[in-house]
Design a protein that fits this description.
Number of strands: 5
CATH architecture: 2-Layer Sandwich
Radius of gyration: 17 Å
Oligomer: single chain
Distance between the termini: 60 Å
Strand content: 25-35%
CATH topology: Alpha-Beta Plaits
Order of helices and strands: HEHEEHHEEH
Number of domains: 1
Strand order of the largest sheet: 2-3-1-4-5
Shape: globular
Structural class: alpha+beta
Length: 140
Amino acid sequence: MPLDYRLHGFPMKLTIEMKARAEKAHELDQTLHALLPAIRSEKGCRACRICRDLENSGIFFLEVDWDARASLEQFLQSLRGGALLGAIDLLGESARAKVGNDVWEGMETLKKIRKPEKNMGRGRAGVSPGLPALKKSKPK
């Protein structure tokens, strides 16, 4: 029976390849470098680096080594994870991701981790346990 990596906390690598939109390569580079300290300070982050393709300066790679998949998932569900995915959407023409030694996949994979299906171990209707529910204001 294979081991469940979620239970055993095996190290996990996230690799994101991004192609910058036309004339946005410098802005994407600056944004990624600005996010590095925040990513490195996340619980479970072992290492984080940005690489740039020498033959095509508009292609970037972000590699983050996590102590376990749970740490990667917590990051993606955080505000910082949302900022990273938002920057990629805004400044990137295309992107793909690889989690662990899996094959390259579209960014939808990371977005699914960011927003798990409703009622899948996250409390009521996809609300994270421990976070207060938003109060609805009564119409006047």
